[in-house]
Each structure stands twice: as C-alpha cells, then as structure tokens.
Amino acid sequence: MIFTSHVFLFYFLPLVLVLYYLIPFRARTALIAFSSYVFYGWANPLWAVIMFFGSSVDYFCGLALVKMSGLPDRDGLPPVIGRELPRTRGMKAVLAVSVVTNLGLLAAFKYTGFVAENVNAMARAFGLGENLLPVLHLVLPVGISFYTFKAMSYAIDVYRGEARPMRRFVDYLCFEAFFPDLVAGPIIRYAAIEEQMRVRQHTLDKFARGVSFFALGMAKKILLANPMGHVADTAFAAGGLHAHDAWFGLFGYAFQIYFDFSGYSDMACGLALMMGFVLIQNFDSPYKADSITDFWRRWHISLSTWLRDYLYIPLGGNRRGERRTYVNLMTVMLLGGLWHGASWNFVVWGAIHGGMLAFERARAARASAAFRAGGAVPRRLPRPVRVAITFFVVCLSWVFFRAKTLVQAIAYCKSLAGIGASRLGSSADAPTGALYTRYHVMAFGLAAVLVWAAPNTWAVTERLSAPRAVGAMVVLALSVLVMWTQSANPFLYFQF
C-alpha cells in the first residue's frame, strides 16, 4: 500500500484515525501495530511474516539484556542499564544475536545475488569455472533497509543504556512496524521515540500541522516529483544525448529524487503528528548546502546521523588521527552506498561522497594549520558559487545513483561532457520533444524556485497560520485530482 493511492487516502487512513481516537490510549499501540502489518502486508503477506520474525528476536533480546543486568523495575517500568554497569559476555552475545539477525535478513534478501554474481565473474576471469555459486533472485521486501536499521537501534540503545526496553510485545511491534515511516523513513531511532510510546500529547494544533505536512508532502510527490521523473526517465533511456539535454535530464532527476523522498518524509511526519508522535526532520533544504559536508547535514538526516552514531564513531571517528579519519569517512560512505542497493553504481556513488568529505576535511585541516602558524586564511568563494559547485558535484554523483549499470552511467557522463551526442540525424530531436513539453518545463521551473528560493515544509508548518493551512488544503485537493490522471508511481526509496 502506498500513501498516494485511493485505498490509503479514502479507506485505510480515515478508518485508522477514527478508531485511534475512539479507543482508550493503552489500546492505541495495538491498533497501530495491527494497522501497520495490514499496510505492509497488503502487497505481499510474506513480507509481514519476515518482519515479524525479526521483531520477535529483537524484542526478546531487549528483555534478555535487562534480565542479565540484574536491575529491578522502577516505577513499574523496565530499568535503563546504566553506563556504570559492566557489560557481561552474555549481554554482548545477546546484542550480537540481534545485530546478526537483522543484518542476516538484510544480506539474505539484498546481497546474496550481488555477491554470487561477482564471485562467479571473478571465477570466470581466473578460469575457475562458470558458476561457482548459484545466483538467487529473491524478491526484496519493500523498505527492509529502513526497518532493519530501526530495529538495530533498539538493541544497541538498550545495551548502551540510552533507553529502557519495552515490556509489552505489542508496543515493540508498534515501534518497528509503525506504518508512517515503515518503508521509506525517516529512520527513527528507538531512544528518540521510546518515551513517546508511553506518553504523548494529542492536540488540535498538532493534528492540523500533521495534515498540512501530509498535504505538502503529497504535493511534492504528485505535482513535482512525478513530472520530473518523466524528464529523468526520458533522458536516461534516450541513449546518446546532446549535452544540454543530458544536463536538463540530470537536473530533472535531482529534483525528482529530492521532492519524491522529502515528500515521503513530510507525509510520514504528518501522519505521525496526527497520532501524537513527533518525528525528526529528515531534510533541511539540502540543495542550499555550500559543501558536501553541509549537504550531509541536510540530506536524509536520519541516515547520516545513524551512520555517524552507530558506525563512524564506533570505528573511531576522528579520534585516531587524520589518516584514520579519512579511512573511516570512506568506509562509512561506501557502506552507505551499499545500503542503498547491491550494485557497483551505489559503491561509486558512496565513493564520490566519501572522497569529497575526506577532501573537504583535509582542506579545512590545512587551512586551520596555516592559520595557527600565522599564515593568512584563504578567501572563500561567495556562498552562491559554493552552493552551485556543491549542487554540480551532487548531480554528477546522482548519475551513478540513477543509471542501471556502470556502462550506462559512464555513457551518460560522456553525454554531459558533449562526447556522446547521439547520431540520430533528423530524429535527433525525438527525446527532446518529451523533455521540453510546456507542462514539464513549468514543473522544472517551479521545482527550481522552491528548491532555492522558498522555505522548506518544516519551516512552513512550524508556525501554521490560517492562510498557510488553507493553501495546504488547496494543494492537497489539486494533488488528489492530478493523482487520478497519473499511472501508479511508487516512491523511489521503496526499492531500498
């Protein structure tokens, strides 16, 4: 089930909200858990079974950690395992069971085919045989990367003493299967929402902001991301392109992935607010960033902070010297690329961002050392120029994110450089006819204005006035009408 469908908008969501506010507070987590499993298993019930298995393991691991700590309940709640308490081998083993189970499920469905294909390719290259490993083509459960990271945060946060475990199984099911953010984030960490599972406020202002959030997110998806997706799909499927057409298609994809993904995050935050939950901001105008470092403070914030706290810092962060810091940055971004998909394209995408992060850090370190030595601080470029350069680099990396293969990505890069222009003769304008329709050019222009000249939805809804609320309802109505004219178009991050 997807948010931009008539089943969700006119049946599922109204029914869930009506029941939610009719039943007692204690029963609401059970309703959310049940509804979330219906939502997730709508397309394939087996996916719900897989998630339930992982959730069961994580839940019992949380209880086992508390039992091994020997701490008593306090005020009727499970205790927080203090940092002063030594972690035993048994507790470490329990944590390992949870982490290995989650990563094992993710690896089994997402990476077994990728590993087998590459092992077989190496075997053929060295003359060791054709197919050493069977290549399994398993159907990837939608959103498994997102809920796997969410589930891992539960056992890790309990083990670290950053949150108390859940006593009721249904509460844990509600946390992990929470349908607003289940399949495409934000990646909600357990420590950030644990208290809200027990105590949260329901106010008219919060509900109104949630509806506005949802409306603006849906407008992003229907009115901007989908037409920009048409531009990107046309350009990337066109073979050789003239440079200006290739850049137009690439910028179209940059707008598509931003409005598609941030639109989903807005809708998720809005749905959560309608039920009293406050989720974190996942996007903060990322294309206004003036460096790649700044970009990752603004883009997919829940993923970047998750990788920082659960991978980069445990690897040593920046505490073990400059060289180790660069290695850690590259490692985190390469793994972040693989998290997005089992493809060398995503590895290259991660390498570009990791390399740029290391480069920017090294440059800042050299400037700082020169200043301490009494040298002059290099003059920085004007901010608009830095923003343009950052956007240019991000867009180049998007080529590898969007292309299906490395060969296609390299061919598209050649088109961007004017090297791979198509030799279509009189039909050379065939792809451009679909790129530059009046509707798509207008959508492109509106997307650019909103990206660089308008506040983001978080800021718009933070102080919700009557005119803003009315405007949100207008774009919601328009989005619903346009939705009926479009073919099914799932969110891009469903594939991850």
Order of helices and strands: HHHHHHHHHHHHHHHHHHHH
Number of helices: 20
Uncertain spans = 422-428
The count of DSSP E runs of length 2 or more, i.e. the number of strands, is 0
Describe the structure.
The protein starts with 5 loop residues before the first helix and ends in a 13-residue tail after the last helix. The chain contains 20 helices and no strands. With 496 residues, the protein is mainly alpha-helical. Helix 3 crosses helix 7, helix 4 packs antiparallel against helix 6 and helix 15 runs antiparallel to helix 16 (406-416). Mean pLDDT is 88; it is low at 422-428. The chain folds into two domains: 6-199, no CATH class; 206-491, no CATH class.
Blueprint of the fold:
Blueprint: H1 6-22, H2 25-41, H3 45-69, H4 89-110, H5 112-125, H6 144-160, H7 169-177, H8 190-198, H9 204-236, H10 243-274, H11 292-298, H12 301-312, H13 322-340, H14 344-372, H15 383-402, H16 406-416, H17 430-435, H18 438-453, H19 457-462, H20 466-483
Helix pairs in contact: 1-2, 2-3, 2-7, 3-4, 3-6, 3-7, 4-6, 9-10, 9-18, 9-20, 10-15, 12-13, 13-14, 14-15, 15-16
